[in-house]
Predict the 3D structure of the following.
Amino acid sequence: MNFMNVLVPVGGVVLVALAYRAYGWPGVAVAAGGVVMWVLLHFTRMMTVLKRTADRPVGYLASAVMLNAKLRPGMTLLHVIAMTRSLGVLHSEKDVQPEFFRWTDEGGSRVTCEFLNGKLVRWELFRPPQDGAQTPADSDRPAP
């Protein structure tokens, strides 16, 4: 069980109760207003992220390599969606933990992310082999 699902509502109730004890009904009004403002702030952020993803194809992003460089363990799925500006393609069964999402760029590189309870656990970058590309060691050799 995720303690944040319990801790945040209990913290809000405790805050309102302490405000009532210290300042009476005006304190309740201020504390409740603060809690409502905090909820609206998070709701607005979520709606803004989802609005930005509405016009983008699912599972595509500009650069999988740049996403790979920016990812950190513990990031939320909403944060990753905000960075990619695209919803990821689900590569696991629906509502089964852990969840696997994949984003692909135009070059065929892709990042597969594993989320456990909405938090990024690990990710993997796959880059397709480049046909005809020379390695740095090959470019130093003179042409025959």
Q: What stands out?
A: Residues 25-53 form the longest helix (29 residues). The two ends are 66 Å apart (CA to CA). The beta strands are 89-90, 99-104, 110-116, 119-126. DSSP finds five helices and four strands in the chain.
